[in-house]
């Protein structure tokens, strides 16, 4: 294919990942426990189910626009599964199995209940034909499709009228499939990650009589035992017809007719061509040979997948050449060599009628052609993948298989080292479990809601990413949600009520609920004329619709007419209606109400550190900033405390500098304002506030007719019961953040993500 | 009271109006028909009910912030009643009754049904005591209160600690009441509007034996027979104690004890002090002596009410002086003289122990003091009222009573002239019945919805005027509505779906509904790279969220890469996501759906005139612009066609000028765009479109999960059934205007105001 497109477009694609991980006990033996209950019904769960064994968790990402996102989604699925594990179980991060029971019969087949009886029966059939142990070999499946608009553009540029778009499209996929099958051994040799086998597997499964298969082995030469002779593969390799999709399917059907395999599902090739059941056209290509990478929590790295993707694209750029029987046999031979002896400098390859060649030379030759042929203007992420690939070629010790075998040298250590990897991933995940990987551009609240939905088996779709606009669906039920809390539970006019401070106050007051006393003006002169009303009082002057506090002034008791008039003018710069309100004393609390129930209460405290009598303020800040909840730019539940001019100035007003050492338990504030964005702390008070305030919050939500709201309430004394003069509701927010209640600086996770889903009926 | 406030603040007030009009047949006889059914249940209707007689419609405005608004609301109530009249009935625009039946018994007492039995019984009691004819005398009641913040400010400025705010407030009201009672004869003399009586009233009611009372009369001397000896008043004037509210109530109670009157309701003084039943404090003052003004559709003019208001405020500025018995007797004497002989140069007045004075001299003296005492810096509307007052003083023929008696000179003509006035008001109203008077600053859609609500007896409250934010309530039911179509019927997330073009398209397509084909880009370079996809096609390039068409480009089939790239850049200036869409052919229709039903379909046509072979284009424009539906600045359903540069230029492209005379039936377009704002026509197609498109519109609304929406659909041929290739839905509007469907240039009023209220359950 002549490529007329920019490389940045050529790498556009749609990507999906599937991954299996075995659940193991903390000693590395296969877990016999049932699939975690927290993950819902594995028969209908769209993302998390089981593969062959009850202990073999299967995670499936939906189609994503980038490889990074697909890996991120998989990472999140992995974290969700980890969080759901019981009895100190771990997820086995290696394709080759952990310690398997001596009695194969005890390996539990996945149980899908009455409705999933067929699935169980199929697994029983597989047990008989292949044995249970082999079925436990796990890995990554990588689904790739080319975006229709890209194919349309390629077709357009071809300007051929002999071929229909559908034929053109099929041709692209068939060429990509055939050439990938031709070249995939290259990927196995470089990226394979299963160079070791535990004896509990090898002595039963591996037919070769070499020593390592009985005691297990840690091979310095192999790249991927999973793909090799001991792996999970068709006993006899077979030849398929790649000349058209129709003939491909026919050749597969012939294998079934001749009982080589029993169904298409038993085609364990490195790549499957997948079909869209709605129109019979090719939907995507499934790359099946990728091993689990125990160094990655997600089980696979984006950079490795980009190499796979490039090898596939390289196939599209190669000249058209039939993938005939000879070529297929050569590919099989190369695959097995790459798998079992991919790092062996002595490995020789040949197929019938061809002379023997050094496998490493073959590999180097391919690499040279591959690197020469690739476009030069690839996006940065792909250029990095190429650099990475060059490193693997030049330094074989950098290959995954080498890094694994460098980490341990006995089959026992094989178990221990992998368990450690698993524990390490888990620990890392726990500190940052507020993220949905690959979706970090979304608001934290949306990430949390999506994660909880995915956990429950609720299908999540991004309808408009930049707006945090998602759909949630399960069975017949479908809900549209924007920014986590804009839902169908609230009606539009009631949202507009919350948005409008004037209306909010009128409605609250009519319901007998306290809101700041004040006046509303649509005319600046009139507002000024009424100075007499506010003289000598602490007041707030603000535009009706405030955005980020713009145009708001607070005047103290000793206010002057001049200050008042200036404040009025400033407020009118932001709206044509302004409010003058009494300044309400007390502390401000965010009270989150869902369906007439208070589900979280939060108070924010200005950025601060607590002395220990030893460290300087600067050191205490650094230490506090190590909390994984703190980051920069609203990507985390809390922000790092800065050591900037504002903080230095505020310290100075207290006669302090960053280098002072506060006494033990002395609280040093770095800021006057309590915003989270300037390093403030969020503190959960859900269980610490007198119930009367909660009752008022619920009453206020009812009066406003709203189901999801974050009320801002000033409270004088949280222990004293509410009285008309000791609290005041400042506003009701129609789009309150939920993440601050899930990951506060102090206090419990109030799981508002779950509460929102409950309220939506999922 | 020492006034330290600016005059602009002093005239702040809250105002309400009540008005009675008798229903008459087209010959001027009292109508015996029941209260119009279209006006709902008069027992519970908050705005329109009946007074004494079934034929005596009573209209009550809610409290308004300005006199102008109160008059406007009354005007609208009047129009609503007029529109509801059957059998060619008219509203009698004069305080003194029309032709009454000889047999008084046939005058129908208001029937409030079983639940309103008490009301009917009270009216039977009144018939007995006062006679039915007197009860038919009609007029205006004007309710005035002082805003609390104004009173608070006055109290603040007073800086007295001896008097509580409540006492201070009561003092203000009592002084205003007493002094108004003292001075109100001045208003009667100048503004009285009932100088004529029909014989069917006078011969039965008037006890004086002068000739005019038997044959009826048209008096050149009287100002207000309604307030005079033949009017509706207490037989014996009584003295009340104005020294405090407590004593005032006691003195009224004493009259009841002594059977002078039977209840407070029978205190027919020119002013009543009204109480807030919740706290027993004075709520407002009710001025009861104002006559109907037959020249005004609303029955009273704002300028006259401002004079009344100024006389009341003048009373506040007068020095404190007891309103003792002597003063009250003097006020009674002046009142009667003003009423029966207000324009009589010979009229003399005196009370016991005082020497006789010329009434006109007394009036001139009062006027001089009044004008001198009033603040100089009154707002313009009040200054105009003063100028008007000066005119009435200097030219007695300008007084209302004089203008009435100048219009006819016999009792028969009295009937005919008033019927003519009534017909004139009605005709004027019919052409502009899209307005809610006094609320013309609101959007037309909101005005229409409010008017229909008021008609149905649904209580309407403006929660936030600048946002067109209203509440509608009836009984326990309450709804919040913004801009007429933002209601509780639609949920927030579904509104956000409509607002988002990307989401809308995805959802419509998923439901199998046609929307323009296209692509979405978040990256300008990528959009540009995809030029190949749109080359040679007519396309629209637009930002995801378009506002007023900003950033939209339309490229024709011969588009160039350069134009395309420029259009992409322009679109990205307005949003971070853009859409490139096929250009859809056909005509655009706005299809309004409420609760899964199409309730209106509209098509807009560019500004045009149709030739008659005689007039120039300029003349045809002028004639078309005379339509009361056309105005300027979105205050009317259609805009006037301009004769500006744009129109001249567009004519020039057709080889025409404004001075050309088009042939008969030739359509001349003045604009290319079809916007209503540039003089376009709105044409109702509700009954003219193939039903398949309506079905699709309903399906689209269902797919989007929305209850109120205005869909924009492109249709190739409105007679042909819908096919996948002959229509396309451009967008769904979540805040569609309703007025264009109610008052189109061509076609029926589709009463969407009523349909929205139906949908809301009112």
Could you explain the architecture of this structure?
The structure is a homodimer of 762-residue chains. Chain A is of the alpha+beta class and 762 residues long. Among the domains of chain A are: 381 residues, 2-Layer Sandwich (Creatine Kinase, Chain A, domain 2); 31 residues, no CATH class; 66 residues, Dna Ligase, domain 1 (2-Layer Sandwich), CATH 3.30.1490.20. Chain A is built from 26 helices and 27 strands. The two termini of chain A are 49 Å apart. Chain A is elongated and about 105 Å long. In chain A, a hairpin with a 5-residue loop joins strand 2 and strand 3. The longest helix of chain A has 27 residues. Chain A is 38% helix and 17% strand. In chain A, helix 6 crosses helix 10 and helix 6 runs parallel beside helix 11. In chain A, strands 1, 2, 3, 4, 5, 8 and 9 form a seven-stranded antiparallel β-sheet that branches. A five-stranded antiparallel β-sheet of chain A has the order 25-20-19-26-27. A four-stranded antiparallel β-sheet of chain A has the order 15-18-16-17.
**What is the overall number of helices of chain A?**
26
Strand content of chain A: 15-25%
Count of distinct strands of chain A: 27
Helix fraction of chain A by DSSP (H/I, runs of at least 4): 25-40%
Q: Which structural class fits the helix and strand makeup of chain A?
A: alpha+beta
**Which assembly state applies to the chains in this document?**
homodimer
CATH topology of the domain at 7-231 and 268-318 and 327-431 in chain A: Creatine Kinase, Chain A, domain 2
What gross morphology of chain A would you assign?
elongated
Rounded to the nearest angstrom, the distance between the terminal CA atoms of chain A is 49 Å
CATH architecture of the domain at 7-231 and 268-318 and 327-431 in chain A: 2-Layer Sandwich
- Largest two-chain interface: A-B, 48 and 48 residues
Return Rg of chain A in Å: 32 Å
Biggest sheet of chain A, in brief?
A: 7 strands, antiparallel
The CATH top-level class label of the domain at 7-231 and 268-318 and 327-431 in chain A: Alpha Beta
Low-confidence stretches of chain A: none
Q: Tell me, rounded to a whole number, the average pLDDT of chain A.
A: 93
